[in-house]
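For reference, the entry.
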Amino acid sequence: MYRAGMAAILSQLAREGRLAVVDSINLEAPKTKLLAAKFKAMGLDSVMLIADTVDDNLALASRNLANVLVCEPRQADPVSLVFFKKVLITKPALAKIEEMLA
């Protein structure tokens, strides 16, 4: 039942244009300004980023941003998927989610 719900939410997000797949998100340093500038350049203010692995730079840079959640595929939950205006998923994370929901 949980897997069906997650699949339904992800497909609805894709239909609404709130789901985007990116190659990767890498930061050179654990600076909140860098990540905030990257999201601002993309036109995002409320975003959930699902990455295959969350490195230290990404985790440290995102923890002080109020409307940003960075997590791994196994930590993605239905409430967060619905809450954030935009969901970004890296390609390797998308493969892991498809594997989890299969």
Summary: The two ends are 12 Å apart (CA to CA). The CA atoms of residues 32 and 61 lie 4 Å apart. Strands lie at 19-22, 47-50, 68-71, 86-90. The first strand starts at residue 19 and ends at 22.
